[in-house]
Amino acid sequence: MSVLIFGSSGQVATELGRYAPDATFLDRAACDLSDPGNCVDAILYHKPRAVINAAAYTAVDKAESEEELATLINGAAPTQMARTCEGLKIPLVHISTDYVFDGTGDAARLPNEATAPVNAYGRSKLVGEDGIRDSGCVHAIMRTSWVFSSHGNNFVKTMLRLSETRDSLNVVGDQIGGPTPARAIAYAANAMAEALIADPTRTGTYHFAGQPDASWADFAREIFRQAGRSVTVNDIPTTDFPTPAKRPLNSRMNCESLKNFTLVRPDWKAALTNVLKELEVIE
Ligand SMILES: NC(=O)C1=CN([C@@H]2O[C@H](COP(=O)(O)OP(=O)(O)OC[C@H]3O[C@@H](n4cnc5c(N)ncnc54)[C@H](OP(=O)(O)O)[C@@H]3O)[C@@H](O)[C@H]2O)C=CC1
Ligand SMILES: Cc1cn([C@H]2C[C@H](O)[C@@H](COP(=O)(O)OP(=O)(O)O[C@H]3O[C@@H](C)C(=O)[C@@H](O)[C@H]3O)O2)c(=O)[nH]c1=O
Ligand SMILES: [Mg+2]
Fold it and tell me: For labeling, which of 128, 155, 165, 254 is most exposed (least CB within 10 Å)?
């Protein structure tokens, strides 16, 4: 029996190929999660020993005008996955987000603190979390943040692209969080699946974010520093960068309970160096 993974070409799904090479990966063509019944059929057909959900609707601004679709993919589908896993008594590892929090204050949030998403994407992800917790299945809901890798869409690639035509950029300096390498998320998700098979009492909600916490402006500066690109980053307040979706200011997450899985917060600056090498921006 192998592990079944929803997602194939996304940032985290791509990296899972490294740690779970024998797993079955389902792309959108094999299982379109906008029809949540499809994931029930897939799990019953494959009869895996665990399920990892690395698929999601991740277009934060677009979700404001497509909340229904985002909620099917991020809410209803993971709920159906969890109910099916409960029926088969197999664990589900699911990836969620810092955007389930409202971002008030400046303390690092614990996994059991109150959620209150400020945008449609966050609300859709919270529906999925609640559905999984209510299902009774053995699970790890891993909340992560600010994911980057050498493939797919992410802030690192956006900054590198902008640097080709700009020598200064305005970047928000008052949203603080943990940039997280997709590779580390994939390692952790696979480790959690195996650990839950061995010991279901580890079921629960966990935080997994890269360290140290930084603003998007700090993140941008480090990208340009490592890439050797001379782009001036001007810190601006969120109010000066209007977007369709509101974003939380404080995305700090307390990750201490990762010790249940003998995992620690990954160092995002070191991982950034690897990603820049993979992109052949540096040697
Ligand atoms: N990106 C980020 O900054 C963050 C992401 N997360 C969470 O981490 C997880 C992984 O994110 P990441 O790897 O960055 O996401 P990506 O956007 O890179 O990939 C999303 C994946 O979901 C798949 N997908 C989208 N719509 C559907 C659908 N209707 N049916 C089936 N599959 C679909 C995509 O498939 P296809 O290639 O066919 O489009 C793709 O493989 C998600 O749960 C996300 O919410 C949490 C915090 C931050
Ligand atoms: C391109 C650009 C963005 N920004 C800001 C906008 C935003 O506040 C921040 C990051 O922009 P992005 O569009 O990459 O961010 P966003 O897509 O909101 O990233 C989020 O994605 C989802 C899926 C998550 O789950 C979150 O953890 C988080 O990673 O930077 C600037 O200030 N200047 C710029 O030139
Ligand atoms: Mg984005």
Answer: 165
207 CB-near residues (< 8 Å, 6+ apart): 109, 110, 111, 142, 143, 144, 253, 254, 255, 257, 258
Residue 183 C-alpha to ligand 3 middle, in angstroms?
Answer: 18
59 in a structural domain: yes
Ligand number nearest CA of 182 is 1
121 assigned to active site = yes
CATH number at residue 149: 3.40.50.720
Question: ipTM score of the complex?
Answer: 0.98
Ligand nearest to the CA of residue 17, numbered in listed order: 1
- Residues spanned by the domain of 262: 3-153+179-210+251-266
Q: Are strands 24-26 and 92-97 parallel, antiparallel or unpaired?
A: unpaired
The answer to the question of residue 281 being in a domain is no
Cα–Cα distance measured from residue 78 to residue 57, given in angstroms and rounded to the nearest whole number: 12
Number of the ligand 2 atom closest to the C-alpha atom of 216: 30
Q: How many domains is the chain built from?
A: 1
- Per the residue annotation, which of 99, 121, 187, 206 is the catalytic one? 121
